[in-house]
Amino acid sequence: MEATINISSTSTEVYNNLLLGTNTHHFSTTQEKDLINKLKPITIRFPHGLWANWYDWRRDVTRLFGTESFDYEQGVNKTLRTKTVDKLENIKIFDRLDIKVGIEGLTSLNASRKLNTGKGFDMMWTFNMSADGTDFNNGCPETIARYDDLIARGFEVKVVEMGNENFYPGQRSSIIPNAEDYIARAKSMSAALKAKDPNIRVSIPLLRRDNWANPNWNTDLTQDLTYFDAVTVHTYVGSDPDDANASDEAYGTALTARKHLGNSIYDYAHQVAPNKPIWLTEWGVKSGGPNAVSALGMADCYIFMSENQDIFERANWFSVNGQLNSHYVWETYISPSGVERPRIKYPLEKTLFGSAYEIIRLALENTTLIESDMQVANLVDGVKAVNARVVTKDGKTSVFVVNLSNQDVPFNINIDGVAYTDAAIHKAMSFSSMDEERTMGIDVDPLTLIGDGNENITLPKFSINIIELSNASLSTSKIVKQDEISIYPNPNRGTFNIKLSHGEEVQYHIYSINGIEIQKGNFVSSKEIRLKNNQTGIFLMQLKGSQGTSTHKIVVN
């Protein structure tokens, strides 16, 4: 088997850094803050997971809202069932001990970031759908008070998830026991937040698989598409933290993770809300542990999302410094009370998830993606044995490649139809077996030099690779840089402006996400564009001029 990548250097797209987001925990102690500062997270999601449904922002604690158990309508026949709140005992302990979630520490971290970089964290806020009570017409006073508090603290509040996984009855409450109650509160919350800031964007949580308790959840929530801007989906490939019985930790599951991730969107959210962007605010890949196949599947999913930026708008790996899919090695210790407890090991060591993420971020962050096509055998139907993205950054062109196969694969590179045989620097993290686990110090480079020169390139089996093309001659020397184009407002309501930093004529073509051209024209320097089809959703705009070609996503609400 060999692989050939054909690069079309005139077709480009700016990489969306928000796909490199993570879920991070703990912001209070000096050690915890140092870890956050070392990570330099692309996005912080706060609060995270099911605890967001029980977050009391006034006390910065987790506590029960409503009663401990409640009746809800199960299934299409709406059979009354009784449900106890998930993790109830933990919620009671957190409340009784007044354990802080960490908004004060996060506030100071954000202030320091603003001081050092001029901009605070990109924040993904998850709001409590029970905090405003059972009067769904009350204007959401607690939600608005929380919004005002966050603004006063110096945070941006641009994106809000309306609840966390409320399709599970145990993550609802006696205040919003059924889908109709959730919808009523979500519509009220959306309206209240948009009254504060018309450009704020909100999401609803949709299922990624069938659900016994609420089989019609996705359909019910999307009968009206106007009250939300995006869809939150949580996809875990392999090990399932929500339901151990649903786990499939076969090694082949992780190796084909991109297919499972895609189907979790195509077969569910896209069936009811095909034009809404996906916020993948929790996701993970794990078959057996932080091993080779899990890291390979993880890396391939990042490539998959970069190939589908019209679908995936945000993604947050779960997690960085929590126990689930952690980037860091954990250990156990005996607490003063004599109980064995887990904690992150110091000095810090990274798992293969941490090493893979470091490579992925090095390869993709702040880059421009160049169109390419991979010619190689399939691992299974719908998953190629080798996948790659070609990128440029700071004048350098690199190929980020994942070899999912158990073979060393000769790798050929063609640029605009011409074979590239010049010098290349090839580094990789490779594995001898699918179940290999590897830990290393936090500052150790996970990449090993494979080759540096004009020799033929071979991808090691089970490997994550970065190949820098030392002397690539690309028409991408004329790529339109992101900071040379301003598109605003975006999202918008069908009218937006384009402003260029140069005064040359540019052609624009606007396409639906299905590739159908809906509008085109020419302009010099700037233009106001009014979409003619009066449709909401995601559109792609291609700009062509002497400066090069670029593609941009336009979101119409």
Automatic annotation (TrEMBL):
Name the Pfam families on file: Por_Secre_tail
Is Signal included in the keywords of this UniProt record? Answer: yes
* SUPFAM superfamilies listed in its UniProt record: (Trans)glycosidases, Glycosyl hydrolase domain
- Domain Secretion system C-terminal sorting: start-end pairs: 487-556
Q: Which InterPro entries match?
A: GH, Glyco_hydro_b, Secre_tail
Q: Which UniProt keywords apply?
A: Signal
Report the record's Gene Ontology biological process terms.
polysaccharide catabolic process
| Record carries keyword Signal | yes
The protein here is known as Secretion system C-terminal sorting domain-containing protein
Q: Can you name the source organism? A: Jejuia pallidilutea
